[in-house]
Design goal:
single chain; alpha/beta; Nucleotidyltransferase, domain 5; Rossmann fold; 2 domains; 12-stranded mixed sheet
Length: 348
């Protein structure tokens, strides 16, 4: 979380149906608290909407808080970076990316956020990055993944026609820094998300949040890219992604490609990653080419695939490694000299 970010948290509702709203304005330490009866969630619709009633209510709350603090959101550098943390599951599928399209809110770029550090950003990773791309046979040739000319920059594993259990087996037995799934996501009668990469999976064969979370942890994934096979599954994919992030999962990018070909956008996404671009900026570059996009991340989650910190660490370690090598070489030379002197004395 940067000082320039606008942070908004929507807490769980109480017995009266009100939600606790917490806001931290840009360049302020103070957090303002209020209780608000939010409109019922509308969810995302097939048409790209303006702000729903719930999104509009949160936009009004943030605008009022800024006005009361003697600041105007319109006076900030735009678009504003908004981090929105959702603790009420009812609003997981709401179109929070529409916040910047609200009539009372300035242009904004929204990250669905959890205020928890992502330790993956501190851990080194292998280069080239291992990339697992999985999709059903019906999606082959539909430009739902990067092209071969871009995949050559990765250690790429592209599969199609696997059962969900077979994909899980791959992830449980190998490492993949990025997992790219062209999938269909739905919610069962209990409201839980179910995800599949096959064309016609039996309900019990679909991934649950826990199933996919365990597989992502096992393969040490830093980024999950969920590409929706159809617009109808976008809301369920958002709900699934929130549950996954909240349970300790990696950064997630959810993409609804819409009817237009998105091949060039996926090429841009994966080329940006190898060029050390933060993931929120990566998403900003491809958003105009996609129908709908969302990013979900914890603290540091936008930087989990940055190469520059790793290069800096290697550079910092290089002098000490060189000194250690020189000391080892000198020790070896001294040992050789000692052995030579001992042999010469014995021969004499």
């Amino acid at each position: 979380m940067e000082p320039k970010d606008l942070y908004i948290r929507i807490g769980a509702s109480d017995e009266s149906g009100q939600n606790e709203l917490v806001i931290r304005l840009p360049f302020e330490e103070q957090r303002r608290h209020a209780r608000l009866l939010l409109p019922e969630p509308a969810g995302v619709t097939l048409a790209l909407p303006g702000a729903s009633a719930a999104v509009g209510a949160v936009a009004a709350f943030a605008t009022k808080a800024a006005d009361e603090a003697g600041k105007s959101l319109y006076g900030l550098q735009q678009p504003i970076n908004v981090l929105i943390e959702l603790q009420d599951r009812r609003y997981f599928s709401e179109d929070w990316e529409a916040l910047g399209r609200s009539a009372i809110f300035p242009p904004a770029e929204v990250t669905r956020f959890i205020e928890r550090s992502d330790e993956r950003v501190l851990l080194p990773f292998d280069l080239p990055i291992e990339l697992l791309v999985a999709m059903p046979p019906s999606c082959l040739g539909l430009h739902t993944a990067p092209s071969e000319s871009v995949l050559r920059y990765y250690k790429n594993f592209s599969v199609s026609g696997l059962e969900n259990s077979e994909l899980s087996g791959m992830m449980l037995s190998s490492n993949y820094g990025i997992v790219h799934l062209v999938s269909d996501t739905s919610r069962d009668a209990s409201g839980e998300g179910r995800l599949s990469i096959t064309d016609e999976p039996a309900p019990e064969a679909r991934f649950t949040v826990q199933d996919l979370g365990n597989a992502l942890t096992a393969c040490k994934a830093r980024l999950l890219v969920l590409v929706c096979r159809n617009a109808e599954s976008y809301g369920a994919a958002l709900h699934f992604a929130h549950r996954l992030l909240n349970s300790g999962g990696p950064t997630v990018i959810v993409i609804d490609p819409g009817p237009a070909p998105m091949g060039p956008a996926f090429d841009t996404l994966y080329l940006d990653i190898v060029h050390d671009t933060p993931l929120d900026e990566v998403l900003r570059h491809i958003a105009p080419q996609a129908y709908r996009t969302a990013m979900l991340a914890g603290i540091g989650g936008a930087d989990v695939l940055r190469i520059s910190p790793q290069a800096y660490d290697l550079a910092q370690k290089a002098p000490s490694a060189a000194r250690a090598a020189e000391e080892a070489l000198n020790m070896s030379r001294r040992g050789a000299q000692h052995a030579y002197a001992a042999n010469a004395a014995r021969d004499s």
